[in-house]
Prior knowledge:
The structure holds 2 protein chains of 2 kinds. Chain A has helices at about 10-20, 30-55, 60-85, 95-120, 125-145, 150-155, 165-195, 195-200, 205-225, 230-245, 250-280, 285-310. By secondary structure, chain A is an all-alpha fold. The radius of gyration of chain A is 21 Å and the shape is globular. Chain B is an all-alpha fold. In chain B, helix 2 packs across helix 10 (about 215-230), helix 2 runs antiparallel to helix 11 and helix 4 (about 70-100) packs antiparallel against helix 5. Chains A and B meet through helix 3, helix 5, helix 6, helix 10 and helix 12 of A and helix 3, helix 5, helix 6, helix 10 and helix 12 of B.
Amino acid sequence: MNPYAEREFFSFFSLFFQRMFSGFSGGLFSDERQIVVLVFLAISLAFLGTLLVVRQMTMLANALSHTLLVGIVVAFLLLHYLYGELSWEGGLPASGLWIAAWIATSVTTLCTQKLTCRFRIQEDASIAFVFTTLFALGILLVTLYTKNMHLGVEIVMGHIDALGTNDVKNAFQLMLGTGCFFGCGFPLLRMIAFDELFAKSIRLPVQTIHALCMLLVAMASMVAFRAVGVLIFLSLLVGPVLWTRLFVHRLSQIILWSMAYGVGCSLIAIGLSRHILTRFHVPLSTAGLLATFLLLFYLFTVTLCFYYRRKKDRSIRRIGI
Amino acid sequence: MTYTFLDFFTDPLLRAPMLGSMILCAALSLLGVFVFVRRSSLIGETLSHAAYPGLMIGATWMSTFMNPAQEEGMALCLLFAFGTTLLALMFVRVLQRYIKSDAALCFTLASFFGVGVLFGSRLQFTYPSWYRAMQVFLYGQTATLLDVHVMIYAIFLGVVLVYIALFYHKIQMVAFDPLYAKSLKVSLFFVDKGFWLLLALGITLAMKSVGVVLISGMLVAPALGARRCSTSLIHMLLFGCLLGTISAFTGNYLSVKCTEWISERLLLPTGPLIVLCSALCALGTLVKKGDVPA
């Protein structure tokens, strides 16, 4: 029996914190799994998102989240071939996730780099070309092997109520991995983010770090696609960083504040979704609520900022093409 | 039953999907060439995803007094989709002035789609039949095209052609040197806005046949192939159009023929096949020697 049933917004959180301090007796319930996975996800995405936004590579993350489909299909077939029957329901085991993420990352980044450097095609066109082609291939493979589109829809939408303990473990590993990566190499990453040429000139392993970073992004989208779907993952990746950048201008502080903002937003989204279910008996998608909340709050804050800046200085003229 | 080559254009069942997707691909690759030379290939992806909330909001409203079998309800939903596509376009254009272009695109894509998911989850609970009808647009179904849709696509292609023919020089200026146009005091306002309007319209129309997730492939791949083989914009347009049409034909042909050749139960979706065909064509052009200045 889920103790969170029939709870409203504030009583939901009071119960959650009560249970948190008593060490979650009786295992994690569905809502707690959601909270834990989303919090881990928001923390690791704050790290990755900051780096991607600063390096102007967020659309590469979008491309990765699409090509992941190919990675998943290949990894699934591989594991199926190696270990026999596997059920999709419990989530892929961590080894499968890593294989899938690795395949997707290497194929996408290699193809994009080849097209951009060797064939001198504009970067945005090559990204768009690579990921749409691979995504089409992925859909074709899925239809070939599963004979239905169910998997495809599930990836896009996510299914937060079906999170298993496997997913919690994966999310925790992801957070640990990202934390270690950033904790160890923060000065390095900062240098690469702002001055890649200089980093190259003093022989830092820029390519390796870039590849590792992309692998982490792929892994994050893999964890996210079980929980919130690949597209809401993007909103959690970019949204908090954009919001934070309105006020904060130091890299380390951007990471910290967007972490706090992302975690707060995910908590509010989960609480709100439970509240609406209790009060109005309508099950709304938590992922959708999260993305909508991020959008609305960003718009609200931007409007406020502009209002105050306009008041301060009315003589700003902007030229737009 | 085996179909001959000619059957694809005359058989009442196969005619509409084949002609429809060919005409649509021709129109989209023309637009795609312009998107490509303006260096904003990724905007197609954002706009196509931004159409999804429109569909869902439209369906949420329609579902209170219609059932999904009615064609006019679907058409109204597409109108809503067109509306949100335009809204997303405006949003991106405003955001791009203040933040980095890629972050603006990514944020718009994800948050608009999120709004769609939110409305979709409500619809799924209250009117599951509407939800299923809308979910089809995610991956598209070329096989459900009718003769009416072919007519609509043909009109759209006509509009695109007329637009290009009338404003060819101005479009060139917008794409390559807007500052030069400004110095000549040529107003590009309406040409620019018309282009984005046509792009949004094309994306909305294409949802019926290839679906939200693959439209950007149809925009980019033919243009990429055409870029390699041409040195002027007009050649690029012609070549891109040709590439798009051929790949639409091949995709449809393969999708029907594979069922025939391999097994009765194997139903390959047409949209991905079209995208894969045009990607293969584009990759084929990469073999051509020599560097093309980027």
